[in-house]
Design brief:
- The longest helix is centred in the first third of the chain and has 35 residues, at 169-203.
- This protein has helices at 3-18, 21-38, 57-68, 90-104, 115-118, 141-155, 169-203, 206-230, 240-268, 273-300, 308-339, 363-368, 377-388, 390-405, 426-437, 456-467, 498-509, 521-555, 559-571, 573-584, 589-592, 604-634, 637-667, 672-704, 713-722, 751-754, and strands spanning 76-81, 109-114, 130-137, 157-159, 162-167, 413-414, 446-451, 472-481, 484-491, 515-520, 600-601.
- It is elongated and about 90 Å long.
- By secondary structure, it is an alpha+beta fold.
- The termini are close together.
- Helix 6 (141-155) crosses helix 7 (169-203), helix 9 packs antiparallel against helix 23 (637-667) and helix 23 packs antiparallel against helix 24.
Length: 759
């Protein structure tokens, strides 16, 4: 495709989005209002599970046991506290019997049993002061939650001579969902005003500061509507709402900062409003498009995993990224067309300075205050210093990042449980009482499902062989119904510890006269880890290959995409090291207000990698595109690197700080996994913007020199046809020392050349 044709396409797009700006904004307002209605109540339709593999052996066994032996899979536990009287007191026993009968009569509740019916030691506390009523609430997560909401108030609290508390897995999930929604609202109330203040500090103009916030709100509301529709088709995790808020605000700020910054630069250089919008779309707009695609690909990679917890973040992430980009590329240009020079109105920063503002004030003027050959202030001086000592900065920065990531070598993977909840949550208190005061930790064992039928002697032989395994504490059963039977196997030590996980494999390999399958918390964890390990190479491969392709289309270089992937991965080391050091090992747990479980939930590192890698590419695309634009114009590699960092260093840092504020607000959640997600990604984006983009990238680009822009001839032809060109032809890299084909230094200049921008 010719340069002229590509430029014409961009010109056509510019005319399309700016022809009727008032109509565009009116349509956006109507669509946003409809999104508010469509997305209302989306949180109530989401689940709080999704860590299991639906195709795993443990999932099959769980469903079969629920169908054949409902009492074997209790998800509701009523903790009956008899106090000093003890659970065997006649009055206590009578009241407990009435509670059991009432619970069995509730719709949607099956498999009800209690200590007073079975006298099972596992259902009675060791001190005799408490005992359990166990049951199973049937249906989907949403249906089970609705049933719990209906019946819990009728059983909770004082009941005659006893006090009843509600717990069990269904109560843990339901309380976690409620807390996440409350914390999300609080995070939004924190993040929105703080973001607005930071934007005012960055832009100076209150009008300009409101634009990114508006784009973010549109993206968030639109994504909620999309998620509401997806919940009609499949399960969606409530945790995904946190990502919607964080990325909606963060990416909207990134994209709007980049576009408004470029628009104000063009105005400051004397361009008319329509021309300024057109140039902005052809340069910054194209960069936003590529950035959105790279982030969306990183998040889409989670679709390859079977757990709906991870897939939910892909649904939410793809929707919010594309909506933020669409709003930035359609609504924002329309708003800028209407505002024109008024985008600089209401400079609130002048309230805090004594001197009268000058034309040099503001983000655009600050960027252009340095001449084209100067160092350009702090960021230009930083780039110059780093490139002067490139080997030192490259080695020191890379070594430091690797050292920060070393704790991750000791990572231990586990599963989310009641300890995710704050210490005062009722469901957690119940589970802690059971964990510490009841023999055998009810609900913490492994269930072995037997199918196909067998004789009593064959069942007894299997039970005896399982009981002889070194990691087994006790075996209960079999409970037989027709051709089905099940055994309960209590492992030694922790219910999901290494011994329990090893026992899962031993049980699955133990020969039997009937078909067996194993479930339980440890079995679900083992299957989840296997599913992630099986799909992880595919997910990483998708991210790497598509990222390499997109960055190549943006730059036409072979080396820059490889650098981008490698440096982005390196920028995540501090996040992974901190996750283990803080959340697994428990350092700072008192300060941050969480309980360390001694492991990391299996899916969290995958989620954090995909999100943080995408955001790192977001900043990387901003920097690389501006470097390439200047390189295409002038052909001077080192000057282009200094220029790119000078023009985007403050922008990227401001965007990273604002996104970090949003993620820290998410990290104030009382649910540990959400806290880990928010604080971990906040650290990752700050390290990427302030260390990798500021120090490592210019150092590495100095070391690679003009070879940075090399590509073999077939790939150059491919890029010329399908890739992006930022104006004038960049010089061939070869023996001419980086000069153009005519041997001249070739500083391509002039507005005419700048406008030759293709997509």
């Amino acid at each position: 495709m010719s340069e002229v044709n590509r430029g014409s396409r961009i010109g056509g797009w510019s005319r399309f989005v700016t022809a009727r700006p008032r109509l565009s904004l009116l349509v956006a307002l109507v669509i946003t209002a409809l999104a508010v209605v469509a997305g209302s109540g989306v949180g109530d339709r989401m689940g709080s599970g999704g860590w299991e593999d639906p195709a795993a052996s443990s999932t099959y066994a769980t469903r079969a046991l629920e169908r054949e032996f409902p009492a074997s899979q209790p998800n509701l536990l009523l903790l009956v506290d008899a106090g000093a009287k003890g659970v065997d007191d006649p009055a206590v026993a009578a009241e407990a019997e009435r509670l059991t009968e009432r619970l069995a009569a509730e719709e949607g509740v099956i498999g009800v049993g209690s200590y007073w019916q079975t006298r099972a030691p596992a259902l009675r506390a060791e001190d005799g002061g408490e005992a359990l009523i166990a049951a199973r609430i049937v249906g989907t997560e949403k249906e089970a939650g609705e049933t719990l909401e209906r019946i819990a108030p009728e059983f909770r609290g004082a009941q005659g001579p006893v006090e009843v508390s509600v717990g069990g897995p269904v109560a843990v999930r339901h309380e976690m969902q409620a807390i996440i929604q409350e914390d999300l609202l609080r995070a939004e109330l924190i993040a929105l005003p703080v973001t607005l203040v930071l934007l005012v500090m960055v832009f100076g103009s209150a009008i300009a500061a409101l634009l990114p916030l508006g784009i973010g709100i549109v993206a968030i509301l639109g994504t909620n509507a999309v998620l509401r529709g997806i919940t009609e088709i499949t399960d969606v995790s409530v945790f995904a709402q946190n990502l919607t808020t964080a990325l909606g605000l963060g990416l909207a700020v990134d994209y709007a900062l980049f576009i408004v910054r470029r628009f104000r630069e063009e105005l400051a250089e004397g361009a008319q409003v329509r021309d300024a919008v057109g140039t902005t779309l052809r340069t910054a707009g194209r960069t936003v498009l590529f950035s959105a695609l790279t982030v969306a690909v990183s998040l889409a990679a989670m679709m390859v995993f079977p757990q709906y917890f991870l897939r939910s973040f892909a649904y939410a992430g793809i929707a919010v990224v594309l909506l933020a980009a669409a709003a930035a590329l359609i609504l924002l240009p329309a708003a800028l067309m209407l505002l024109g020079h008024r985008v600089n109105s209401f400079d609130l920063r002048r309230l805090f300075r004594r001197r009268k503002p000058t034309p040099g004030d503001g983000i655009a003027a600050g960027a252009r205050s340095a001449g084209p050959e100067g160092s350009g202030g702090g960021w230009g001086r930083t780039a110059t210093l780093v490139m002067r000592r490139a080997p030192l900065f490259a080695v020191a920065t890379a070594t430091g990042l690797v050292l920060l990531g070393l704790p991750f070598l000791g990572v231990k993977f586990g599963t989310a449980d009641h300890r995710q909840l704050p210490s005062g949550a009722e469901a957690r208190v119940v589970q802690e009482d059971i964990r510490g005061g009841f023999p055998g930790s009810p609900g913490g064992g492994l269930e072995v499902l037997g199918e196909g039928g067998a004789t009593p002697a064959e069942y007894a032989d299997y039970r005896d062989r399982v009981a002889a395994l070194p990691d087994v504490e006790r075996v209960d059963g079999p409970v037989v119904s027709g051709d089905h039977a099940y055994f309960t196997v209590l492992p030694r030590g922790e219910a999901v510890g290494q011994d329990a996980q090893r026992l899962v494999g031993e049980l699955r390999s133990e020969p039997a006269a009937f078909d067996t399958s194993v479930t339980g918390t440890a079995a679900v964890l083992v299957d989840s880890k296997d599913a992630i390990a099986d799909r992880l190479p595919l997910a990483v491969g998708i991210i790497v290959v598509v990222t390499l392709l997109l960055v190549f289309l943006l730059t036409g270089s072979v080396l820059i995409p490889i650098q981008a992937v490698a440096l982005n991965a390196l920028s995540l080391t501090a996040m992974f090291g901190a996750v283990v050091w803080v959340f697994q090992d428990g350092n700072l747990s008192g300060l941050l207000g969480f309980t360390s479980t001694g492991d990391i939930e299996t899916t969290l590192p995958v989620l954090m990698f995909c999100v943080a890698f995408g955001l790192s590419m977001d900043y990387g695309v901003f920097l690389i595109s501006r470097i390439k634009e200047e390189y295409d114009r002038g052909g001077d590699h080192e000057h282009a690197v200094v220029f790119g960092l000078r023009r985007t260093g403050g922008l990227i840092t401001a965007a990273a700080v604002i996104l970090a504020v949003v993620m820290v607000a998410i990290g104030t959640s009382r649910v540990t996994n959400t806290k880990m997600l928010g604080l971990g990604i906040a650290l990752a984006v700050v390290m990427d913007a302030m260390v990798v983009r500021s120090l490592l990238v210019p150092a590495v680009m100095k070391l690679t020199g003009n070879a940075t822009w090399w590509a073999p001839r077939p790939l150059r032809r491919f890029h010329e046809r399908f890739g992006v060109s930022e104006g004038g032809s960049h010089p061939e890299v070869g023996t001419d020392g980086g000069k153009g084909a005519d041997g001249a230094d070739g500083a391509v200049s002039g507005a005419g050349e700048r406008d030759k921008v293709g997509v």
